[in-house]
Design a protein that fits this description.
five-stranded antiparallel β-sheet; 4% helix; 114 residues; globular; 53% strand; mainly beta
C-alpha cells in the first residue's frame, strides 16, 4: 500500500456531479473507498452476497435504503452496517454532498442491484 493517509477534501476535489467511488486501497482481504454523492444523486439499493459493507458518514445527509421500501436518515457522524446479503444504498438529501468512507470484507465484492 503506497499511500496510507488521505485528506478527504483532496480525494473529493473536482469530482463530477454524480455519485463517484474512489478506491483508496484494495487487497485480497478488504478494501476501503470514499463515496462522494452530490445532492439528489444516489448509490442504488444493492447487496453483497458474501461481503459486509460498513459506511462511516463524514459529511452531508442522506436517506439510507434498508430494503423492502424502508429507509432511515443518515448524517455526518453516523455509521451504517450492512452484513452480507443486507440491502443498502443511499440518496443524498441535504444541500451539500454526502461523503462517506466504506470498508468492505471479505473480497471479492460482488454487487447485486435490487
Amino acid at each position: 500500500m503506497a499511500e496510507r493517509i488521505y485528506r478527504v477534501a483532496d480525494v473529493t476535489r473536482g469530482l463530477p456531479p454524480q455519485a463517484t467511488k474512489t478506491v483508496l486501497y484494495e487487497n485480497e482481504r478488504t478494501n476501503g473507498v470514499i463515496w462522494y454523492v452530490p445532492p439528489g444523486e444516489e448509490v442504488p439499493a444493492h447487496y453483497h452476497p458474501d461481503t459486509d459493507d460498513i459506511w462511516i458518514v463524514l459529511q452531508g445527509q442522506g436517506e439510507y435504503y434498508l430494503g423492502e421500501g424502508r429507509t432511515c436518515p443518515l448524517e455526518a457522524g453516523m455509521v451504517a452496517v450492512a452484513a452480507k446479503g443486507e440491502v443498502h444504498g443511499v440518496r443524498a438529501t441535504g444541500a451539500e454532498p454526502l461523503v462517506f468512507a466504506a470498508i468492505s470484507a471479505p473480497m471479492p465484492v460482488q454487487m447485486i442491484k435490487v
